[in-house]
Amino acid sequence: MRAGGQPGGGVHPALGNAQKDNSDLSNRAPLLGVPADCRGAVVASDLHPGRVPSFQAVQHRPADADAEPDPGYEIRRLGGERELAAALALRYEVFCLEQGVPAHEERDGRDHSGLHLVAVMDGAIVATCRLVFVGQTVQFSRLAVKRSARRRGIASALLRATDREARAHGSRHILLHAQTYARSLYEQAGYEPRGREFVEAGIEHIAMEKLL
Ligand SMILES: CC(C)(COP(=O)(O)OP(=O)(O)OC[C@H]1O[C@@H](n2cnc3c(N)ncnc32)[C@H](O)[C@@H]1OP(=O)(O)O)[C@@H](O)C(=O)NCCC(=O)NCCS
Known about the structure:
By secondary structure, this protein is α+β, with helices and mostly antiparallel strands. It contains four helices and seven strands. Helices cover about 20% and strands about 25% of the residues.
């Protein structure tokens, strides 16, 4: 289904009350440990906030950067509060304005607990995603590419950078909730579906996992 979700909508049954109360960490390992939405509607965790910064000024160059032609964009970690604001504005544009996701679901209060990766083109952030580390799991969410920058491989490049970050962190697998229309994006990146499709925030999703 091409994304175009309506406001409101259901919650994956596996998620229980996790969206409402992130402080209760006791009973949310239903499917794959801890579910994560590609927008990140949910995340519950025994996080280790001190271990992974929300962003860093250090650039993150892909390992294969020297072997490939310049793609016209740079993939790296978020560079500070100003870039965080730009990434959040892009998410609002994509998820809320384009896909109809309510703003209160898009912003779940976990952005300072996650590691954000961005794609920068001509000095502007054109794509973003978020990684939340929970034990040996990475909860991947909030993948958004500016409409004008799509189908150039940027999301795929962010997924490769996510793999590198996850491995560097010692993670064993990455979990996400894919909008089903974008399922092939994740399959090409090595993710496999888990369980049945479900509706979240009015958008059809499927849980996917990648073992590292
Ligand atoms: C989905 C999204 C992140 C893809 O970003 P992108 O940078 O255009 O993706 P890529 O160029 O890396 O695409 C790689 C492959 O993924 C698949 N794919 C990407 N966009 C797709 C789409 N709209 N429909 C179907 N398949 C798609 C294709 O197989 C594509 O390969 P191809 O271009 O050779 O056909 C982007 O369209 C977006 O931000 N959409 C709105 C927000 C959203 O849906 N986020 C993802 C939530 S799970």
